[in-house]
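Dear colleagues,

For the upcoming journal club I promised to circulate an example of a predicted protein-ligand complex. I picked one with guanosine-5'-triphosphate because it came up in last month's discussion. The inputs are reproduced below in full, followed by the predicted structure.
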Amino acid sequence: MGVVWSRMPEAKFLKSAREAAHYPDTKVPEVAFYGRSNTGKSSLINALVKKKGLVKTGSKPGMTQLINFFTYGEDTMLVDLPGYGYAQSPGHVREKFPVMMKEYFETRDQLKLVCLLLDIRRTPSDLDIQTANLLASLEVPTALVLTKSDKVSGNERVNQRHKIAKELNLDPDDLFLTSAEKGVGLHELWVMIRSQLRG
Ligand SMILES: Nc1nc2c(ncn2[C@@H]2O[C@H](COP(=O)(O)OP(=O)(O)OP(=O)(O)O)[C@@H](O)[C@H]2O)c(=O)[nH]1
Ligand SMILES: [Mg+2]
């Protein structure tokens, strides 16, 4: 008699899209990862699904330029978004981002949660605040996620968490602390994502 293992779902690339007409025609609830360029969106997705090469990451900002949809098991869609605030993107790409993103946030009914990522080492920029406000005005549920926690020491981690929370008018406990590199905070993040997608 063998054991029937309940396996971890597998993450698979589904498709890339620039506009609503090309989004996948599915009913699966989705969580999208957004934030400044280079903040670690693609790395966090790879870490969450424990599949290193699933999403392309890079040391140069502007790595992700389209809306990328990934299935995770039968009932979850993970969406990797291009970052904002990268001045060196080609003009047409740069200009497309807000339009492309606005359309996605406004029209995508399957979207149940946006994880807005912030590098723990930086003070949130005007663009970060504007983005948070836009998501709030569109009534898209948003979780604030601090990335790259391994890059700062213990004291600095606490200080930055408080400082960033203050800038956003939030409680430090409202911020999810993560490191894709070290696997910090991934379980807590999954628990929140699951409850938001199933709720
Ligand atoms: N030390 C450390 N480095 C990280 C972590 N997460 C991401 N990085 C690095 O940060 C850089 C950017 O990561 P990406 O995941 O490509 O960032 P992104 O937000 O998807 O960037 P764009 O697609 O350009 O918007 C890469 O060099 C990653 O290796 C982390 O938790 N710790
Ligand atoms: Mg990326």
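Two points we might discuss: The two ends are 38 Å apart (CA to CA). Residues 11-198 form a domain with the Rossmann fold fold (CATH 3.40.50.300).

See you all on Thursday,
B. R.
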